[in-house]
Specification:
Elements (H helix, E strand, L loop, with lengths): L4 H8 L9 H11 L28 H12 L2 H13 L8 H15 L3 H11 L6 H12 L4
Helix pairs in contact: 5-6
Amino acid sequence: MVFNRAARELLKRVADGNVIIHDWMTYIVISAVGGTIFYDRKPSVKYRQHGDNLVGSNLSFRARARRVKMLFEGQWKEWNSIHLKELERLLPDITDENRKVLKSFVQMREADGIVQRCWHLRKSGVYRQTLLGEIGLLFAAMFGKV
């Protein structure tokens, strides 16, 4: 990841050690305030995984099964709660449009029924980048695990 000084200063406001998935949070923070994100499909460095990775690569069946297990055990929901709390620090800087996204996402998490959770998820516009990720997000929302 490469980012400018403005992004660095913004990230320092949420980087108090409670952030779980740093690359995810970096993306959310920068985009929430209307920053520009450039995604380069061509890797510049090889993916390095260390023993303390919480999530790691999801290329193998075993790794994907581990992620599904974490999802249904509530790990993702807990991590989202931590990240949402950190985002509260940035509310004054978040664009109006992204505040609406955030509000719908929170409403989805708080909704009682499957239909309401799915409706708020769709309304929020939040999505995953792959078909499997998108299916996982939908099931997670349906079962209140986001």
